[in-house]
Amino acid sequence: MTESETTTFAASSKPRVDDSKPSVGELVHEVADDVLKLMRQEVQLAKLEVKDDVTQAAKAGGMLGGAGIAAHLFLIFVTFTVMFALNELMDIVWAALIVSAIWGIAAYVLYLTGRRRMSTVNFTPEQTIQTLKEDVRWAQNRTN
Length: 144
Description:
- By secondary structure, the protein is mainly α.
- 83% of the residues lie in helices and 0% in strands.
- It has one domain.
- It has helices spanning 3-12, 24-87, 92-119, 126-143.
- Helix 2 packs antiparallel against helix 4.
């Protein structure tokens, strides 16, 4: 421990009346305070991590939804245009069937793309889990 760390630690500790070893109660109180402080920090970190991930997912979902609505309207008019153009070559029923098959393929491709983008979002607060593991090791070493 460096001199500045010792000074900081000594300044943050409660002053003792005598130079004897601290009592078990004092040690338990210090450990409990440290654990509470760590838990508060971990909860704060988890909140920040989850908030970032949820924000990313919401933005991705909003973009997919907005694109879907705009594409839907556009495609309705394109569908009618293609159907009526094909009607010049064949019966309207066959033209509608061809256009419907194209839309089915397009819907499947859009679904796969959206699912792939959503799967990149990680809702597990990895950093918080790692620091919690470190805290457990720290607490175990402190009690030993």
